[in-house]
Structures
1.
Amino acid sequence: MSANADIARLFHEMADALELLGENAFRVNALRKVARVAEDATADLAAVARTDPKAVEAIEGIGASSARKIVEFAGSGAMREHAELLAKLPPGLMQVLRVPGLGPRTVKLLWEQGGVTDLATLKTKLASGELAGLPRMGPKTLQNIAENLAFLETAGQRTRLGDALPVADALVAELSKLPGVKEVAFAGSLRRGRETIGDVDLLVATTKPSPVMHAFTSRPGVAKVLAHGETKSSVRLASGLQVDLRAVAPAAWGAALLYFTGSKEHNVLLRERAQRKGLRLNEYGLFKDDGKPEPPQDRGLTPVAAATEAKVYEALGLPWIPPELREGHDECGGTPAPLIELSDIRRELHCHTTASDGACTIEEMAEEAKRRGFDAIAITDHSRSSAQANGLSVERLREHIAAIRAAARRVSGIHILAGSEVDILADGRLDYPDEVLAELDWVVASPHTALKQEPAAATKRLLAAIEHPLVHVIGHPSGRMLGGRPGLEPDWAALFKAAARSGVAMEINANPHRLDLRDQLVRAALAAGCHIAIDTDAHGLDNFDLLRFGVLTGRRGGLTAEGCVNAWPWKRFEAWRHSRGR
Ligand code: DGT
Ligand code: CA
Ligand code: CA
Ligand code: ZN
């Protein structure tokens, strides 16, 4: 987390605390504004404060007293007023704000009139029915709070793929430099590309594990050593992420990688298969089963296969199964079509520029897409209802279309499509009239508000967008935020059927906070015959790197290049794009 994110969090928390204490709205708003300025700032505010404290106050939206707090933070890493405000509240009350849908107003009510002081009391009081008498707390509201609390409890303990994968990559690179290390990889749910992971499982092949274990547990960034053994260690990083490391013999690398990649359910399928063939599979290898209870590796038996995953699968009569499919469903049933790969993606079809809430110009985004070898980029800034994201009025959209066309003339070697990310309003209408949409090359239609509406209303809403002839793709269809809000829960089967019929693509938004559609919905969409789009929703140049998370999610859903509009040859893509709107 950057210092700016920390500053933003402290200001948000001060605003939350003031609201919970019932202080005046003016101060609350001023603090929230500073939090947003910190979130959006491109410069490191703490660094600015250290070199020139006066410069902080000169930033638009930051007043004198907020600037003083930022300078204080730059020096000490804390803000005195923040600590003082939080001390006025029960210690666990701020946590209650983390329940999706619970704002300061409701938490204040639950606290003052319902005696809720933390998540635990909220849970018991919901269960006992004590909160039923409170104003604005009807049975449906309480039910909602209970569901969202349960969601927070399960989502809170896992780490997002997007946060874990870069850490694991760095650890793998670090371990691979150690002497005597023959192979290094991450395994577990991370290798399977799950949207959240419980812990990171690292594996090294070496004949001298001891120095590797020592280097691992004593590296900087380790907050706590949970276990330190000869071949197995476990640490907690400062971020809270747990990392397990196991060392195995190089000759058993494949069997170990297979075992520790899991899933447990996939391992069960493989062991059963081995048994039917008179074989025995464990993390040391695939062995002939001689019926003796002692582990075969302890009796010096030579495995039938162990060195690589492919050899173990082959000996079991299976093709190598991509980790993303190893969930114990039907992955051992036949030879699956090759899954989509990062290098199959030829274009970005959802991104934002400075016209709405992006950080770069049209040309900067197009040049980046070109640098990454793409044949096209669709510029899709927000529509007028997304006021918080600086959405474009019809007039501004028309100017923007002209600017995109002008950029397209200046930048060669890549197609630049004039698009929009149009809000799907709560009732299913789109945020621009049809005659305006018809001026665009490309339309992403996405839900941004009313994300807690009833399933029936959500179905009707998304169906209207799917059946709208000018829409090309439904962006982040559920609107969920991982660990934040569950999003819409429409009748997906009905939607996918309609999308397959109308030809609209369903998006996998690759942002690791979204991954929306999620893996199993991708599978359902493909089974229904839908086209899938994988978009990064880039708001800046770095965001193009998010693509790998979208591709992993697609692979988990069984997506092939054939099923993905971003991977189609240009001619096929163009034929499909033009077929919309008729
Ligand atoms: P996570 O960390 O909760 O996201 O999920 P995984 O799948 O990474 O699970 P983890 O870290 O507990 O273990 C890593 C892999 O090791 C797991 O996918 C399969 C294998 N494994 C661990 N414990 C067992 C077990 O008791 N039986 C079997 N068959 N495999 C296991
Ligand atoms: Ca794990
Ligand atoms: Ca583990
Ligand atoms: Zn969006």
2.
Amino acid sequence: MDKMLEEAVTAIGTPNIALIKYWGKRDPELNLPTNSSISITLDETLNTKTSVLFSDCFKGDRLFINGEAYDLKDTKNEKTAFTAKVLEHMRGLAGTEAGALIVSKNSFPTAGGLASSASGAATLCYAVSEALELRLAPKELSIVARRISGSACRSISGGFVEWRKGSAADGSDSYAESIANEEHWPEVIDIITLIEDKKKKVSSSEGHRRATETSELYQIRPKIADRRVESMEKAIEQRDFEALAEITMKDSNSLHATALDSFPPILYLNDTSKAVIQRIHELNQHEGATIAAYTFDAGPNAQIITLKKHKNKVIDAIGEIISKDRILVVGQGHGPRPLPSSESLLGDMNLL
Ligand code: DP6
């Protein structure tokens, strides 16, 4: 048993926050996006830890997430479906039929619009690749992670990350890469608010589908988003915060406009989210400069992109709306990394 535990791999990975959003798929099977996107990989304040052990002695695979057992044959469940896909793919690459034991733990609420699927999927891909000694390069890992959950492909690399949409029908050129690592502009931080921790009412997968299939407004979005990607690349390169902030807010607003224009409409933002939007514009106006930008994924939780030096001003401003114990300050991260065996989650589970 000790030998098996020694061969187990434990990894930690993190979510990312998109500044230019992935919204709409040109191929839903392969998660190929209609536009390129740019995100910031976050530090380990919010994280997923995953331990993986492969053994020929295991009959089948077992998956535990946050202490709960999942049936990997359940194709209706997003988590099990994506884990099964990774295992099948990676076992094929490694030429093994060994069974897997996977234990994963999120340090934050799943499905609350805080990219737990991106964090979970990126960490899983990395841990499985290491456990099977495949040592896949970031490009390959990004492609595998993308197939599980599109935005996960951006959590494989650190700092500012761009997912180029690509054009190949098989998705071989649709993956994410770091365009500036976490040391390029570490002043940029993300202030995360936990306005609601309930499960999303409409999943992002359904949001992608409904926007592409039913929103007329959506039809003009991919071109606009791709143009913004170019402007954002420049803003990052030149460390131009005002440009970064303005593009970020506009792109978030554009996503939520097409969500509302979908039919039936999707309203991810609630009254608190809207109050945060107002408050950030008031703050910027009061400062006479754009010092903060809000952005929202498929949920009501605001994430405020700002610079370290403005942290307290931003917290004071949104602290009028959201209780301070629901506000987290998060820096930039580097993508998944291995953890020592003393951090293995397999030991806790009494599974072997
Ligand atoms: C609004 O990556 O969750 O967060 O590929 O169906 O798993 P699937 O979708 P997902 O979509 C994320 C959408 C978003 C924007 C973004 O992160 O770019």
